[in-house]
Specification:
206 residues, alpha+beta, 5-stranded antiparallel beta sheet, 8 helices, globular, General stress protein 17M-like domain-containing protein, Low_temp-induced_all0457
């Protein structure tokens, strides 16, 4: 039996290390996925989605094309070799690779009920935690998800736990500042908002 485990990271570098360690521990990269916020264009600024060029909201276009691209992200050299710049409504621009990126973008492009949160729960993330992960990415974080054998869950969770955000504590901090719940219709965070969020939690670097 396979289970899905996920963690949120403030810094992409921490998430990158987690992915590398998962692969080093023997987990095939086809079972790992990463979704990182790119609102501040830290990755591939020359490839940034152009929302104004043709007068069309390219977030939907990006989701539609990304659904096809996402399935092939992560080649023989490992998951991180296949990173791609995509756009998800509600989250904004993201850098992603792996099966979860394909699932989430496919759901968004197809108009599935629940959008990205529905895709996360379909992938095995709990209904309680899926909106928190989505909000975490929206605020500048990086999510790593892995499909692992149930018998090896503890071993792989120990790898993911290194430098991961305590999701329950972080969501409590959001609620203290007035946050209610993840809203897929909300405007994605801009570069300045992401920087302020990282400064708030002492994570100003990617």
């Amino acid at each position: 039996m396979t289970v899905t485990i996920s963690r949120l990271y403030d810094n992409y570098s921490d998430a990158q290390r987690a992915v590398t360690n998962l692969e080093a521990a023997g987990l095939p990269h086809s079972e790992v996925s990463i979704v990182a916020n790119n609102s501040d264009s830290w990755y591939g600024s020359d490839k940034k989605v152009d929302r104004d060029r043709d007068g069309v909201d390219d977030r939907t276009e990006g989701a539609a094309t990304g659904a096809g691209v996402g399935a092939g992200l992560g080649g023989a050299a490992g998951l991180l070799a296949g990173l791609g710049l995509l756009a998800i409504p509600g989250l904004g621009p993201v850098v992603a690779a792996g099966w979860l990126a394909s699932t989430a973008l496919g759901a968004v492009a197809g108009g599935a009920t629940g959008g990205v949160v529905g895709a996360l729960t379909q992938a095995g993330v709990s209904e309680e935690e899926a909106p928190l992960y989505a909000e975490g990415v929206r605020r500048g974080g990086t999510m790593v998800s892995a499909r692992v054998p149930d018998g090896d869950r503890a071993r792989y969770e120990a790898i993911l736990d290194q430098s991961a955000v305590n999701l329950r504590d972080r969501s409590a901090a959001w609620q203290k500042s007035g946050w209610k719940s993840y809203d897929p219709a909300a405007q994605p965070y801009g570069a300045d908002e992401v920087r302020r969020e990282r400064q708030l939690y002492g994570t100003g670097v990617r």
